[in-house]
Amino acid sequence: MKRPLRCGLLLGALIGPAALAQPMQSPWWEDYAVRDRYLCRSQGVVVVERNEAQASLIQGRYRSTLFREASDQPGIRYSGDGLRLILLGDELTVEQLPQRILCLRTDQV
User: Which of 10, 19, 52, 99 is least buried, going by the fewest C-beta atoms within 10 A?
Assistant: First the structure.
């Protein structure tokens, strides 16, 4: 049996249209330079806001803040509280082991 991700990614249903119309935004002082939208097959749409030091993973009203990870492996990595984001080209991998969710960038928000 798979356990749900704490960030709200495994809610059991796709996000409703109202949640997609007005995604949550991070406070201005966090100064995220990049904001991308990703489509995760069974989870709907998530938004990743990021800068060089940290990232926010947003799905509907759920938001998790993660911090940049130094790594020799490919991609840009952020982690925190048992959750890891791996950005590699147009792909986002969300990990909370043993689960991995692959998402594809749809466009910039």
Answer: 52
Q: What is the pTM of this model?
A: 0.71
Give the residue from 6, 3, 7 showing the smallest Cα distance to 58: 7
User: Which CATH number belongs to the domain containing residue 89 in this structure?
Assistant: 2.40.128.200
In tens, the pLDDT along 43-80 reads: 789 999 999 999 999 988 888 999 999 999 999 999 99
Nearest to 9 by CA among 50, 67, 54, 66: 66
Structural domain of residue 98, as residue ranges?
31-108
Q: How many domains does the chain have?
A: 1
Beta strands 62-68; 91-96: pairing state: unpaired
